[in-house]
Amino acid sequence: MMKLRQFSIFLSLLALLSFAGVSEAANPCNPCGIKQNPCNPCAMKQMKKHNPCNPCSMKTMHNPCNPCGMAANPCSTDVKKNIRPHAFNSFQESVDMGRKMWNDDEGMGKAGVACLSCHADFDMLHFDKNQNFPHYVKMVGDVVTLDQMINYCLLNPMQGHELAQDSKEMTAMAAYYRSYRMKYLREHKK
Ligand code: HEC
């Protein structure tokens, strides 16, 4: 009697397990459950470069396998996460805002100086060294990213407030820095 009962428990467990297996394999959203699924990222390695599902070879947004085109992906529950409200439509727009801030000798800090006061004519920016950030800066005594360097100058020589990493102001400052550096490179072409 006991044996029969144990056997039937065993049978129902088996049925449950195989059911779970089937439903996993049939789930169209499970990226790894479907071996034959051409969009399966787990099978990517074996596929050729021109595989339309290879995220590295994707040019078109309308490819249903393209993780960048998620809006069209029926399996996606992703909601786009913004780092801040939309700020700029072009690089030039951000440069224009950054230029105003760079030249502002009132709003940026208590010292009453602007970035321009110390960095006019490319002074002290070491553009001749042609380094990318992060790099070691003597005044800071540390290795810093561009954003950290901007904040360091805002806090110390300018006695102002630091800018939030995700703010449009930080983007604008970094954009102006880049356009100023491009100007230097144009003027100092060998
Ligand atoms: C009172 C002078 C002064 C002001 C104002 C100033 N800085 Fe600086 N800044 C310096 C000095 C000095 C250095 C060079 C430090 C070194 O080489 O050790 C420097 C370095 C930098 C660098 C790094 C250069 C490199 O080595 O790559 C950046 C970027 C920078 N400043 C941005 C700014 C920005 C943006 C502002 C305005 C928000 C600003 N600075 C305001 C004095 C100033």
Protein architecture, described:
The chain has 190 residues and is mostly helical. It folds into two domains: 18-72, no CATH class; 91-187, Cytochrome Bc1 Complex, Chain D, domain 2 (Orthogonal Bundle), CATH 1.10.760. It has helices spanning 2-26, 91-102, 115-119, 146-155, 168-187, and strands at residues 135-137, 142-144. A two-stranded antiparallel ribbon has the order 1-2. The site of heme C has 21 residues, from helix 3, helix 4 and helix 5.
Report how far apart the termini are: 95 Å
Cα shape:
elongated
CATH homologous superfamily name of the largest domain?
Cytochrome c-like domain
In terms of DSSP E residues, the strand content is under 5%
Keywords:
single chain, 190 residues, mainly alpha, Cytochrome Bc1 Complex, Chain D, domain 2, two-stranded antiparallel ribbon, 5 helices, 2 strands, 38% helix, elongated, binds heme C
